[in-house]
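Objective 1.3, modelling of assemblies. Example input:
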Amino acid sequence: MATLDPGIGEKFSRRTKRAINHDGSFNVRRRGGPHRYDLYQSLIQMDWWSFIGLLILFFSVLNGVFAFVYLGLGLNDLPGVAAPRGWWQDFLSALFFSIQTFTSVGYGHVYPGSNGTGLVSSVEALVGVLTFALATGLLYGRFSRPSARIHFSQTAIISRRADGTPCLQFRIANQRSNILIDLQARVLLKTVDPATSNQKYDFLPLERDSISFFPLSWTVVHDITPDSPLYGLGPEDYEVFDIEVIIQLKGYDDTFAQDVHARNSYTHDEIEWHRRFVRAYEVGEDGIAVVDLDQLHVTEALTEELVMKNEEVS
Amino acid sequence: MATLDPGIGEKFSRRTKRAINHDGSFNVRRRGGPHRYDLYQSLIQMDWWSFIGLLILFFSVLNGVFAFVYLGLGLNDLPGVAAPRGWWQDFLSALFFSIQTFTSVGYGHVYPGSNGTGLVSSVEALVGVLTFALATGLLYGRFSRPSARIHFSQTAIISRRADGTPCLQFRIANQRSNILIDLQARVLLKTVDPATSNQKYDFLPLERDSISFFPLSWTVVHDITPDSPLYGLGPEDYEVFDIEVIIQLKGYDDTFAQDVHARNSYTHDEIEWHRRFVRAYEVGEDGIAVVDLDQLHVTEALTEELVMKNEEVS
Amino acid sequence: MATLDPGIGEKFSRRTKRAINHDGSFNVRRRGGPHRYDLYQSLIQMDWWSFIGLLILFFSVLNGVFAFVYLGLGLNDLPGVAAPRGWWQDFLSALFFSIQTFTSVGYGHVYPGSNGTGLVSSVEALVGVLTFALATGLLYGRFSRPSARIHFSQTAIISRRADGTPCLQFRIANQRSNILIDLQARVLLKTVDPATSNQKYDFLPLERDSISFFPLSWTVVHDITPDSPLYGLGPEDYEVFDIEVIIQLKGYDDTFAQDVHARNSYTHDEIEWHRRFVRAYEVGEDGIAVVDLDQLHVTEALTEELVMKNEEVS
Amino acid sequence: MATLDPGIGEKFSRRTKRAINHDGSFNVRRRGGPHRYDLYQSLIQMDWWSFIGLLILFFSVLNGVFAFVYLGLGLNDLPGVAAPRGWWQDFLSALFFSIQTFTSVGYGHVYPGSNGTGLVSSVEALVGVLTFALATGLLYGRFSRPSARIHFSQTAIISRRADGTPCLQFRIANQRSNILIDLQARVLLKTVDPATSNQKYDFLPLERDSISFFPLSWTVVHDITPDSPLYGLGPEDYEVFDIEVIIQLKGYDDTFAQDVHARNSYTHDEIEWHRRFVRAYEVGEDGIAVVDLDQLHVTEALTEELVMKNEEVS
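Predicted structure (C-alpha cells):
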C-alpha cells in the first residue's frame, strides 16, 4: 500500500507535537515572506469576549481622540457646553459631544459653532456611520459563519466484533439540535519512524464512511484486518510509533445551508484497549429517541472470552 | 443486499415514532453533555411572528431599563423635561428620551445635562447602533436562508405499470415560482423487526433519481421488482413491519444560488393501494403549462383488470 | 437510446410554447394549493427601477400615514411648528417631522411635546431603523446574488467538419470581464410527436462538454453522427417535430466565489443551415486577445463543395 | 494523446502574451456587444485605497451638490446659520447642514425653516440612510469575499528523482494562517506552434494532485516520463515552443467556509534547470513545525552525478 502525504509533511528533523489539536488547529507557525495578516479573518474567528472588548476599546480610543481634537479647537467653538468648567469637565463635555456625533444622536444642546468644529464633526459623523456599517458586516460575518459542533468521544477504543475481529472505534454526536446531512468521515493514521522521525500516513478504510442523516450518535469503525496498517500492533507499538489517528468530517448543515467541516485526532495515549462503547441513545415512553451526550464517552470492558479471541487474532 | 445505517439508529429498546416528520424534523431529543444552544440558529429558524414579538420585547425591556436608570439619576439631569410632573409622567419622559437616544433620533429638546446622564446616554447610543447592526444581520440571515418549498402528495401510492409491474409512487411540486435545477431524490425504506423493535434500512432504487429542471410536478417511482425489499408484501405486512418510506431531496435553487434540501416520509397508513395519480398539469390556450397544486394529491382507482394483474405479480 | 424526462413534462394535451425562453424562464404557471409567494425572492429578482420605485412608494406611504397620525393628535403637541398655518402647511410640517423621525435625523426644532406624540414618534423611530436594516439586507441581497451573464449567439447553426460530418453548433461569450472556471455545458433536444403532442427529450453528446477557463468565446459542438437523434433530419423535419435545443450551463464565478448557472434554447426557426461561425477573437498588437461580442453572431455560408459533402452524409 | 482546449483559445493570428498573469488575470479584452459593466463587481474587486478614495469622493460630491441646492433656496430658509456671512461662509454652513442631514446627526442648531428646505432635507436624509445601507453591503461584500492567498515559488524547476527520472516541480505555501482543506492542483502545458502561432494544451499528470490539509508547503511534481509532452525537450525547445505551465488550484477555506481558487503560470524563462528545492519547513524546539515563506523560493544545484543521470534519461 503506497503511503500518502495528506499535506502535513513527511520529513522532520525531530518529533513534532500532535498533528491536529482537539480544537481542529494545527501545530504550525509561519515565518518570513509576505505573510498576510487578515484583519477580517481574525475579527471573525476570535471569541466573543475578545471581540466585544476590542469593539469597546476601539470606540473609546476613537472618541477620546476626537474629544482631544475638540479640546484643541477650544470649547468656545462648541456653544452649549455647560458651566462651571475645568479640564476634566471640558474633556467630558467634548467626549459626550463626540459620542453624540459619532453615533449620530446629535441632541444639539451642544453644537459645532465654528468652521473648525463644523469640519471635524462632519468627518466624525461620516466615520461614525461607516464604522457601524463595518460593525454590521462583522457581526453578521461572525454569526453566519457555519461551523460544525461535533462532540467526539474522549477516547478512541480498540474493540472487537462478535466474530473476534479487532477494530478501532470512536464515537461522535452533534452538540447542536440541527440536522447534518450526508456526513462523511475520513480517517488517517500517522506513524512516526522511531529512527528518523519521518512521518508516514495511511488511510484507514471504514466499515461505513458516510451516513445520510446525523440526528443521533455515530460510531465510526475501522476493522483491523490483515490489510490494516494497525494489524498485529500492540499498545507498546502504538507508543513506539507515536501513532495518531486523524479524523476529518464533512457534512451539510441544514440551518446554514452550507457544508461544515470538523477535525480531531486521537494520539496513542487517548486510545483505550479492550473496551466497547455503551449505547448512547434510548427511546423515551413517547417514542422519541434521546441522545445522552454524557454517555458518549462511556465504555465498558470486553468480556474475558472476547479479549482472548481478540488476542489470538490481533 | 446489505442493510445500511442512514444514521437514524438501528437498535432500539422499543418502537419509535416515525423517523421524519412532515416538516422534515426528526423525533430526537438531546440530554446532558456540552449541548450547544445556538442563539443565532434559534433566531434564524423561529417563525416571523415570534421573531417580531421577541424584537419588540427586547426593545421594550432594554429601553425600560434605561428609563429607570435616568429616573434614578434624577430628571433634573435631563433639562427640557416638561412640567407638570409625577411618577408616571416622569417615567414616560425618561422612556421617550431613552428611545430617542437608542434610535439616535436625538431631537434635543430633552438632553443630558450632567456627567451622569451624559455617560449613560453615550452608552445607550452605542448599544443602540450596535443593536440595529445586529438586527440588520439577523433580518438578512432570515431572509436569505435558502429553503426548498417542496409540496409532497399527501399519500404515496402502490400503483402498477402498463405491463403489470407494481410500483411505489409519490408526487412532488415546487410551491415557489422559482426553478430548481438538477433535483435529486433518494428514497429509503425503514422496516421494524416486530420481535426486537430493531430497525432496518434499505435504499429503494428509482426509475429516475434526478431531473434537470423542476418547473412542473415530478412523480418519483420505485418499481417493486423481485429485487425490491417491498416485493411480495401486502398492506398488512406494511403495518406489521411498521414501514416508513423516507425521502431526501436536493436541488440547486436559482434565486438563492445555493443548494436546497427537503425531507419527508410516508408511514404505512399514508400509503394507498391500487391507485394512480391523475395528471396535475395541463396546457392553457396560450401554450403555457399550468400546474395545479391541489390536483397533486388526487388519485384514482386502478381498473379491476390491472389490479388483478398486479395481484398476480406482487 | 432510452428517452429521458428532464422534468419539463412529457404528455401534453396540445402544443406548448418553447420550453425555455431566452431569459432562462419557463412557460409555466401555478394554480391552487398552498402556493408560496416569497416576498424576499420577488424583491431580489425585480429589476432595479421597479425596486427603487417600490422603495420610494413605501417610504412615501409610510411617512404619509405617520403624518396623518400626528395631524390627528394635533400639531399643538408638536411644539416648534412654524406659523402661519393651514391644512396643507400643517400636513407638510407633520410630514417633515415624520421623515426627520423616520430617518433618525431629529433636528429638534420640532419635537414631540405630549405623551401621544412622544409615543408615536418613538414607534416611528424604531420602525425607521428596522426598515433601514431591512433595506440594507435587500440591497446586499440584490447586489451579491451571483448570476452568469452569458451572451449566446442569436442562432444555432448546422455546419460541417472538414471531413464532412455535419454538426450542430452555437457560440457563447462572457459579457462580464470576470473569469468563469470549469464551465460545463449540457444540451438537450426536445422533439414533439406531431400526432399526440407528446414531448420527447434526448441528451445531445458534445465534442467537449466543459472548459477549464472561459475568458474568450466557446463554440459548443454536437456531431450529428448516426447515433445522434438529429441524424438524417432536414430543415422541414425540424419544423414538423417542433425541435428545440435546450442548453444548460454551469460554472464557477471568480468574483462571487459561487457557482453560476445559465439557460437558453434555440427553436427550429432559430437554427441556420449550412453556415459556419466567423472567428470572434483576434490578437492585438500588444499580444492581448480581443473578444468581439458583436462578432459572436456572425456566420458565413459554407462552400458549395462542403454543403454537397454534407448533404451526402446527413 | 488528444489535445484539449481549456477555453483559452487555440488559433491565433500572432503570438499572444502569457495566458495567465501572476495575479491570476488573463490577457483578454472585450469589445462591442452588450458588454456588461458590473458596478458591484468593480466595487468589490478594486483595492482598498481606491475604494476608500471613491467613497470619500462620492460623499464630498453628493454633499457639495446638496449644499449648493440649499444655497440656491437661500440660507434664510435655514434658521440658525451664524453671522457674519459671506459666500464661502455660506457655502460651509450649507455644507455642514447637508452633512448633518446626510449622516442623520441633525444637531438642530440649523434646521429647515421652509417647505423648500424641509423637502430637500427630507430627501437628503432618505438618500443618506440608503447610501449607508449600500455602503454596509459593499463593505461586507469586500470583507467576506473568499480568496486564496497562495504563495508560489518564483520559479518552477526541472529536477530529478533519486532514480534519475526528470521532473517538473513548483512549490506553494499558504500566506494566511488559516487551513485549506482538500487542496487540488491541475496543471496544463501550453505550447505554441512556431510556424502558425496556434496554441496546444495538454494536461500534465501529477505525482499527487490533491492533499487533505495544507498547513505547510506543497511541492507539486510532474514526472517527465516518455508519456509526458515535455519528454525529450531541452531549455531551447522550451523557448522555441513558448512553453507556459498553467496552474489551477482549488480548496476549501475553513474561515470563509467556501471553496477558494487560485491560478498562476510559469513561462519558459521562469523555469530553472537542474535545481532542487531546499526544504522550507523545520521543527522548532517546542515540537511545532515552522514554515519559512522566504525559503519557498530557494533552490540548489543538483549534483553533477544526478544531472548526468538526468541528461541520459531526458
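The domain at 150-313 of chain D is CATH 2.60.40.1400 (Immunoglobulin-like).
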